[in-house]
Every structure is written in C-alpha cells, then in structure tokens.
Specification:
Distance between the termini of chain C: 36 Å
Number of domains of chain C: 1
Strand content of chain C: under 5%
Oligomer: heterotrimer
Radius of gyration of chain C: 17 Å
Largest sheet of chain C: none
Chains: A mainly alpha (106), B alpha+beta (247), C mainly alpha (113)
CATH topology of chain C: 3 helical TM bundles of succinate and fumarate reductases
Helix content of chain C: over 70%
Order of helices and strands of chain A: HHHH
Number of strands of chain A: 0
Largest sheet of chain A: none
Distance between the termini of chain A: 38 Å
Shape of chain C: elongated
Helix content of chain A: over 70%
CATH topology of chain A: 3 helical TM bundles of succinate and fumarate reductases
CATH class of chain A: Mainly Alpha
C-alpha cells in the first residue's frame, strides 16, 4: 500500500534528516571544502550505510509524494501518473546511489 | 426596535446544471436576522422563482446549509451581523455537490458515499438476544460518541479540499460515520469496513487540513476520526487482519 | 487562489508542507549530481563548492535548509497526528514546528556568513 510505504519511509527519514540538518549547520561554518568532507566519508561504513538508507528512503518518499501532487494538482491519472512516480523514484535512486558511491568509495 | 431604513446588498447565485450567474438583491437590514431570513425575504418579496432548502430553521436538521461569503454554513444559525461586510453578503450553493437549481444541491452523491464507506450498522444480534452491555465509559464507546452527532448536513463535505480534488474520495462525513461504527462493539462488519476505508478513496487521501472540523456546526472532528481510521487500518494491514481471509 | 473557507492555520501548514516538499524534490537531483562530482576527484567537487560561496547562492541554501526543516518538523506533526491518540492542540504544534524550522534555518545562516 502506497500510504504505508509513504509513512514508513517518513519514519525512517525523520531521524536521518535530523542528523543531516544538524550536520549541515555544523559543517557550514568556515565554508564548505571538499577535502574536509571527503576525508570523513571516504571508506566509512557508517556514512555509507547512513546515506545509502537515506537515498532509498527518500526515493520512495519523494516518488509517492510527487504522485499525490500529480494526481491532485496536475489531474494526471493511470499510466501517466505511475510513470511520473516511477521515473522520479528511479531517477533519485540512481543519482543518489552514484552520489553515495562518489563520497564513500575509497 | 426595528430599523427599516438600512439595506443589505445580497448577491445570490442563480442557475442550474447548465450554468448560472450572481444576481444582486436589496434586502431590508434588521437588527437581528439570519442569512436564512434574508434568503426567505428575497423569495417572498423580490423573486418567487428563487429555489432554496430549509426545514427546522433552528439549527437541528442541517437542510439550510449554503456557502455564505465563501464559507459553508447553516444559514439559519448565521447571523447577518456576524458575516456581512459593509452590509453586503454573497450566498451560493454548497461547494462539491451538483446544483439542482439556485441554492439547492443534489445530495445523493453525498449519501452514496456514506453507503460506500459502509456507514451502516450491521447487526450481530436479534431481538431475542440480551441487550449488549456496552459501558459508556469504555474507550471505544467514547470514541464513537464523539462522532455520532452528525446530521449529514454536508458542510464538512463542502469545505473539504480533497473532496474537491478527487471525485472518488468518500469524504469527511462518511469516514467519520465509519469510524463511529469501527468503534461500535456490536457491529459485525468490522473487517469489511476497514478494507473499504483503508484505500485511496478512503482515509488515506486525507491531508489533515481540518477544514471539516473548522466548519462543522456540530463541532465534530472528522479529521480526528479519519486519523483513527488510518491508525486502525495500518495496524490491521501490518498484522495481517486486513485481507479477505481475516473474516 | 486561496478561498475564504481555506483561510485557517492548518490549511497554511499543509500548503507549506507540500511546497517545501516540491522544492526539496526539485533540489535533490541537483544535490546528488554535485556530490557525484567527487567521483572525478576532490578538485571537481571543490570547484562547485566555491561557487556556492556567492551571497545569492547562500540565500538559496538558506531557503533550502528552511524547506528541509519545515518539511521535517511539519511531517513529524503529521506522523504524531496519524499514529498517536488525537491531540486537539494541532495549531500549537504547527506553530512550534514552524518556529523550530526558522530557528534551524537562522542558525545555518548565522554560521554561514
């Protein structure tokens, strides 16, 4: 059921986003530097798992959310609606996995 | 003391399913009058062809519900002084329902959804059985009691954004009733009802705007009832009680 | 167009939640793409990060952090509403969520400049 998937992905995202938010506020001081970030993430199993889970959950959550918006505000239906949701979800999953790989792969 | 010199500017929607427009009327402004009084005055003194509905005129039946200055209300319980802006008001039929003529809407779709949400009691006992012993203090009975004063006036239905956006959405009134029955220990159709409301046409589409609770003249809270349905159906789905074999 | 019957606090909260979600959904592909630049080495990523030092970009970042916080805290309010026993103080919670969001976003802004 899409409803349950949406709510469960939300529950998974909540703590992940909170950590990410705190991280953003912490890391932004003094400006962002690639080396500073990457030395922490490269080779890290923890960050790999954290952001890997994040990417999967957000792909599901955003796809279903966009599907609802497509249905209510754009009046899309059936195949077109599902295609929109699926492409959004897959797109985020692919790009997101690439990003996690990029910052974690040693 | 009556003051007959002031006038209200009343804009009323007139028309039928093929279309319509707003027509302006001037109505004597009184110190104490309701919007229903105003509509009645127009029909009796200005234009007898105006169609509208009312019955009890004392806030018990819900028949006189209309859109007043963009908000769905019971016109018999809406004082003109409270809603008029510079002695002007606009009266239109309820939103989200097909118009029959002028201010009268076709409520059959609203009642069809009540039926589809299984808003009907399914008895498990007959008159030879002992009366069910349900304590009014039990949690479930309290939940049911909080929602049973609904008189099907369709104000919540008219206020709901999701009803406007999805034609299949069962709506706050029907789902509120379903919730009261989910909490009725005597009802025998619990599984079937949960399956019906645990759908996109049912409780899952509610976005908790609470427009329904904001405008319900009986101060009911369909959003809370629908949240209860979400909770109950989610738990049922996760514990395998929602499938057809669950009985 | 916001109609008269829609002008109440919780309807605004719902709209904010939806719009912030859209904003985030549009931003994410870009975010993932930029991070993915690290595949080509640190310098590739650094080039783009330097570009975000521009005041206009910082303002956009502030907006995005605000969106993230609003969507998170508004979403938490909804999860509590749906999965825990009903609490009548929904408007209070919505206001609290908004206040927390602004707090985080401002914290970001003050540390960023």
């Amino acid at each position: 059921m899409l409803y349950l998937a949406q709510r469960i992905s939300a529950m998974i995202l909540a703590p992940l986003v909170l950590v990410h938010l705190v991280l953003i506020v912490y890391a932004i001081q003094g400006g962002l530097d690639a080396a500073e970030i990457l030395t922490r993430t490269r080779g890290s199993v923890i960050w790999g798992t954290f952001y890997g889970l994040f990417v999967v959950a957000v792909s599901v959550h955003a796809a279903i959310g966009l599907r609802t918006i497509g249905q209510e505000w754009l009046r899309l239906k059936g195949g077109v609606l599902d295609a929109l949701a699926l492409s959004a979800g897959l797109g985020l999953l692919v790009l997101g996995t690439r990003a996690v790989y990029a910052v974690v792969a040693a | 003391m009556r003051d007959n010199s002031r006038q209200l500017e009343v804009r009323v929607w007139r028309g039928d399913p093929s279309g319509g427009r707003h027509i302006d009327y001037r109505v004597p402004e009184l110190d104490n009058q309701t919007v229903l009084d105003v509509v009645t005055w127009i029909q009796r003194n200005s234009d007898p062809s105006l169609s509208y509905r009312f019955a009890c005129r004392v806030g018990m039946c819900g028949s006189c519900a209309m859109t007043v200055n963009g908000v769905p209300r019971w016109t018999c319980r809406t004082h003109v002084r409270k809603v008029a802006q510079d002695s002007a008001l606009t009266v239109e039929p309820l939103r989200n329902l097909p118009v029959i003529k002028d201010l009268a809407c076709d409520m059959s779709g609203f009642f069809d959804k009540w039926d589809r949400a299984m808003g009907r009691f399914h008895a498990t006992a007959n008159r030879y059985d002992a009366i069910a012993a349900i304590s009014p203090d039990s949690d479930r009975r309290r939940e049911a009691d909080a929602g049973i004063e609904c008189i099907n006036c369709a104000v919540c239905y008219a206020a709901c954004d999701v009803v406007a956006l999805r034609t299949d959405y069962l709506g706050p009134a029907a789902l509120n009733r379903a919730w009261t029955l989910v909490n009725d220990a005597r009802d025998g159709a619990q599984s079937a009802r949960l399956r019906t409301v645990a759908s996109d046409a049912g409780c899952h589409s509610c976005h908790s705007h609470q427009s329904c609770s904001t405008w319900c003249p009986n101060e009911l809270n369909p959003t809370a009832s629908i949240a209860g349905l979400k909770r109950t159906s989610s738990i049922a789905a996760l514990t395998g009680k929602l499938s057809r074999n669950a009985g | 167009m916001i109609r008269p019957h829609q002008r109440h606090a919780l309807r605004l909260a719902a709209l904010v939640h939806r719009l912030s979600g859209i904003g985030l959904a549009l931003f994410l592909p870009l975010h993932f793409y930029v991070l993915g630049m690290a595949i080509n080495g640190d310098q590739a990523l650094n080039g783009l990060l330097r570009w975000t030092e521009h005041p206009l970009l910082k303002t956009v970042e502030f907006g995005l952090v605000l969106f993230l916080a609003l969507h998170l805290f508004g979403g938490l309010r909804l999860l509590v509403l749906e999965f825990m026993p009903w609490r009548p103080a929904q408007k209070t919670y919505a206001a609290l969520a908004a206040a927390l969001s602004v707090f985080f976003a401002l914290l970001f802004l003050f540390r960023a400049v």
